[in-house]
Specification:
about 110 residues, alpha+beta, 4 helices, four-stranded mixed sheet
Length: about 110
């Protein structure tokens, strides 16, 4: 079965998260490493337009439709939602974040 291509929309929250990850990377690992990490992360996000089904269901946001998925990238989790018309990137979080705060991702509107 061929996967239907869908546009990828990044929430403002996820954009802020990605920028914060970049800034943390600059402070911790240097500008070159941070830019490389951010470029690879954005490449994976853009690839969701036709590869959205290859990533696992987010085990903290289980639904019958398996609409919440996540990309594991380094120590970060990028959570996205599959809708009938598009892919919505909701949040990029550190693996150190409390799981109880993760459930609020369902309420993010784009």
């Amino acid at each position: 079965m061929e996967t239907q291509e869908r546009p990828v929309i990044i929430s403002t929250i996820a954009e802020t998260d990605i920028q914060n990850i970049y800034l943390y990377g600059v402070e911790t690992f240097g500008k070159n490493a941070a830019e490389t990490f951010k470029a690879e992360l954005l490449f994976m996000i853009r690839a969701l337009r036709n590869l959205y089904e290859i990533h696992p269901e987010c085990r903290y946001l289980i639904t019958k439709s398996r609409m919440y998925r996540n990309i594991i990238f380094g120590s970060y989790l990028v959570i996205y939602r599959i809708t009938p018309t598009r892919i919505e990137v909701l949040k990029a979080i550190s693996s150190r974040m409390r799981i109880s705060r993760l459930r609020a991702v369902r309420k993010i509107k784009i």
